Amino acid sequence: MATPLDRDKLLKLLALLGSDQEGEVLAAARRIDAMLREADRGWDEIVTVPSGRSWLQVFEFSTLYFLELKRRISAERSAENWQAIARAREDELRRLKTAPEPARVEAAARRRVERITGHELIDRLLSAQELDPTRRARVEAIATWFKKTQTLTRAEETDLETMLRQLETAG
Question: Mean pLDDT across the stretch 92-121?
Answer without folding.
Answer: 68
